[in-house]
Design a protein that fits this description.
This protein has helices spanning about 1-35, 90-105, 130-135, 140-145, 150-160, 175-185; strands at about 40-45, 50, 130, 160, 170-175. The chain has six helices and five strands; from the N terminus they run αββαβαααββα. Strands 3-5-4 form a three-stranded antiparallel β-sheet. A two-stranded antiparallel ribbon has the order 1-2. It folds into two domains: about 1-40, no CATH class; about 40-185, no CATH class. About 20% of the residues are buried. Strand 1 and strand 2 (about 50) form a beta hairpin. It is extended. It is mainly α and about 190 residues long. The longest helix is centred in the N-terminal third of the chain and has 32 residues, at about 1-35.
Length: about 190
């Protein structure tokens, strides 16, 4: 037993120094040379400051709606609802979101609603929606803003972010950036 304790203590000390010191400083150094010193992308619109890497609440009909948040878009308290897919409260919340979406988007079938428009992400702060989630909202926005649907479709295409290195992840759209671009349309 004694022959195992000393190496275990040494390994613990080495790991503690490496992960508490060296690794932390390495990641901090990388963040400091990254754009905006690792603080995320800051966007100014209408003299307001926004962080594009944190989800924003958009629920007005003349904007693209953002993904629901389990933490009410509070970046200080990121987290999911921790309710499983069979939880009655969770199912009730999702059904209310579906009903609300259908009420504000007449002509859309329940089966056409992408899941990211009615379910919160794990962090509750996802700033992105899927391309399908944006496209299913075009009719409502075009009607309210009196714009051509094709013009809004082009805007969606222009704001679509491709997967990292063309392999990792899926196509997505930052809702904040899309809505700012939407405001610039005439």
């Amino acid at each position: 037993m004694k022959q195992n304790i000393l190496p275990a203590i040494k390994l613990t000390a080495v790991c503690l120094l490496f992960f508490s010191g060296f690794y932390t400083l390495l990641i901090l150094g990388i963040a400091k040379v990254a754009p905006n010193q690792g603080k995320g992308e800051v966007i100014f619109s209408n003299q307001k400051k926004y962080y594009s890497n944190v989800g924003q609440r958009f629920t007005q009909d003349n904007y693209f709606w953002s993904r629901p948040s389990a933490v009410d878009y509070n970046a200080a308290g990121a987290g999911g609802s921790n309710k499983g897919p069979s939880n009655p409260d969770y199912l009730k919340t999702v059904q209310e979101r579906i009903d609300n979406f259908l009420k504000h988007n007449p002509g859309i079938k329940k089966s056409e609603i992408p899941s990211d428009l009615v379910t919160a992400s794990g962090s509750g702060l996802d700033p992105h929606i899927s391309v399908q989630a944006a496209r299913v909202q075009v009719r409502r926005i075009a009607k309210i803003r009196a714009l051509n649907e094709a013009k809004i479709q082009k805007l969606i295409t222009a704001n679509t972010e491709k997967p990292l290195l063309g392999l990792l992840g899926t196509e997505k759209i930052n809702v904040l950036k899309l809505n700012i671009a939407l405001n610039s349309l005439k």
